[in-house]
Amino acid sequence: MDFELPDDIKMFQRALRDFCEAEIKPHASHADESGELPWNAIHKMPALGLTGLQVDEEYGGAGMDTIAASVAVEEIGRVCGSTGLSISAHNGLGCGPIATWGTPEQKARWLPVLTSGKVLGALALTEPQAGSDLLGGAQVSAVREGDEWVINGTKAWITNVRFAPVITVLVRTRPEGGSRSFSMLLVETDREGVTVHPPEKKMGLKASPTHMISFENVRVPAENLLGEEGRGFYMTMQTLDSGRISIGALSVGLAQGAFEEMVRYAQERHAFGEPIAHKQLIQEKIANAAVEIEAARTLVYKAAWMKDAGKDYTKMAAIAKLKASEVAERVCFDAIQIHGSYGYSREYPVERIYRDQRLMQIGEGTSEIQRIVIARRVLQEFEQGVLLPA
Ligand SMILES: Cc1cc2nc3c(=O)[nH]c(=O)nc-3n(C[C@H](O)[C@H](O)[C@H](O)COP(=O)(O)OP(=O)(O)OC[C@H]3O[C@@H](n4cnc5c(N)ncnc54)[C@H](O)[C@@H]3O)c2cc1C
User: Fold this and answer.
1) What is the predicted pLDDT for the residue at 3?
2) DSSP 8-state secondary structure symbol assigned to residue 200
3) Residue-wise pLDDT tens digits, 345-384
4) Cα dist. 254→34, 80, 170, 296, 388 in Å?
5) Is the CB of 157 under 6 A from ligand 1?
6) Residue 388 pLDDT exceeds 80
7) pLDDT of res. 105
8) What average pLDDT does the structure give for the chain?
9) Is residue 279 part of a domain?
10) CATH number of the domain that 306 lies in?
11) Which of 75, 127, 261, 364 is catalytic?
């Protein structure tokens, strides 16, 4: 087993590091203050494959494996959480379902648009009254009328929807309930009856816009069905498994960004006659952060590798996301602590990163839901006598 990234991914990472340092990092603070994504950088992303990480090249994507895609999201997250979340959601939630389940016509229609760097993709699962419990609580409905679906209801907290010409929407197509009662529909956002509400006022990730979207008798043609009717819940779970690797990678990037700020500051700031980096209590925080980030990154790579190897990676994706998001919280907490008062100031990046990372324990399944997923799998494995590690 090779514990190093392959040379081609290392080269990609180096190119990405340069791009992110030059094109995104200088604008991250302004993005947070203004609420505007750094679109000049996003327009340049197709050249690096960042707007179609795992989309086939014929549709303008880069056709990368999941480890390379994780490296990409980590590198963007390292310099800007908002850009990291929007690009992660665009790839995993926006492009992912269409690339995985789209018909040749749906892929040809939408993937080249989505990978162009001019728009961003989105997936609408959550509703005002249901996030973790989509099966029991999601109510947005689609009723078949002739050759059309008629959609009614409201989705909430949808990343990138403001920039998306089309979104994938989880809809209830059978009123009787159960996991076969959901389907996925592609909905063009300029259709009559679609309303994108004002952006949510958030704690962090302020440049990555999140909106509620309502559907009032929105009609889409039958061919907008994505995948099989009745498979929407299964598709949701599969998309979230994959998305969790990406949120894990983004969490590692946020932790890495805060870590670098923390170490630099500790070396520069003097107290009691020497740099605070010489103090053992400060070194303890630095060492803990180094260990935790390395552990989280390794888990993200393992989940990515399992996905690419065609293994069942549900548990590992949940483990990676849970660990990485909790590491991001701890590292950012300590990064602020090491900065003292300056860590509490908006003038220093650690304050922004601390706010940005908080979402990682909520989005694409809360930490409680990850623990439920992990425990359920562990219990199943014990029942089946599968006790060797994957
Ligand atoms: C910035 C941002 C971006 C987002 N982007 C998107 C997006 O692009 N698309 C999308 O569809 N959604 C998106 N979301 C929504 C997000 O995925 C949900 O908010 C999340 O899944 C949690 O759902 P909820 O907020 O309804 O919480 P709830 O499900 O109401 O949960 C509330 C609390 O109860 C806990 N809880 C729930 N069930 C259990 C249980 N069985 N046992 C123990 N505890 C439990 C939860 O862990 C949580 O702590 C986004 C949210 C934010 C904040």
Assistant:
1) 77
2) P
3) 999 999 999 999 999 999 999 999 999 999 999 999 999 9
4) 20, 8, 30, 12, 32
5) yes
6) no
7) 98
8) 97
9) yes
10) 1.20.140.10
11) 364
Q: Which of 89, 114, 139 is the last residue of a domain?
A: 114
pLDDT at 1: 57
Residues 68 and 151 in one domain: no
- pLDDT, tens only, 171-206: 999 988 889 999 999 999 999 999 999 999 999 999
Of all protein residues, whose CA lies closest to atom 4 belonging to ligand 1? Answer: 157
Q: CA-based diameter of the chain, in Å? A: 79
Asked if 368 and 237 sit in the same domain, the reply is yes
| Tokens 């009717």, located at residue | 229
Asked whether the whole model's pTM tops 0.85, one would answer yes
Does 364 contact ligand 1 (Cβ within 6 A)? yes
- Determine the structural domain holding residue 177 and report its residue range: 122-229
Distance CA 367, CA 205 (A): 19
226 contacts 106 by C-beta, under 8 angstroms = yes
What atom of ligand 1 comes closest to residue 368's alpha carbon? 47
Q: How many angstroms is it from 70 CA to the middle of ligand 1?
A: 23
The residues, ordered by sequence, that sit 6+ positions from 350 with a Cβ below 8 Å of its Cβ are: 258, 261, 262, 332, 335, 336, 339, 343
Residue 154: in which H helix or E strand, if any? strand 148-159
Same domain? 102 vs 191: no
Tell whether 223 and 237 lie within a shared domain: no
The Cα 287–Cα 284 span in angstroms is: 5
Give residue 214's pLDDT band: very low, low, confident or very high (50, 70, 90).
Answer: very high
Note if 326 is an active site residue: no
Q: Who's near 244: CB < 8 A, 6+ residues apart? A: 303, 317, 318, 320, 321, 364, 365, 370
Residue 386 confidence (pLDDT): 80
Same domain, 370 and 282: yes
Q: What is the rounded distance in angstroms from the CA atom of residue 250 to the CA atom of residue 245?
A: 9
Q: SS3 for 103?
A: coil
Taking CA atoms, 269 is separated from 238, 263, 276, 343, in Å, by: 47, 10, 6, 12
Position 332 in a domain: yes
Within a domain: 203: yes
